[in-house]
Amino acid sequence: MPDDPEKKVPARFYRNEHGTEPVRDWLQSRTKEDRLVIGSDIATVEYGWPIGMPTCELMGGGLWQVRSELERNRIARVLFCFRDGYMVLLHAFIKKTRKTPPSDLKIARDRQREVER
User: Model's pTM, two decimal places?
Assistant: First the structure.
């Protein structure tokens, strides 16, 4: 399916060496309500780039995050980078601490290095 020409930076899912897409799988495991909020926030970045806080934030080193506020005071993050005109969705998680856990950053940065090769 061709990209929507209105999207300034279409999203693509990171695909690992086994052909799976971890962020897509994570999204499919969420509730319909969560998927709608997170998907809407990703679309805001796709159509509105460049965009900043509160929806999007630079994490450093070419890594960005989409910030989603979910019901019941939950926070979701989707970490991404840019490659060949696309935003590549690298890693997603429910944030439970004030700072982004180093383990989640490591996963995203490892995948970012893979994508940028």
Answer: 0.95
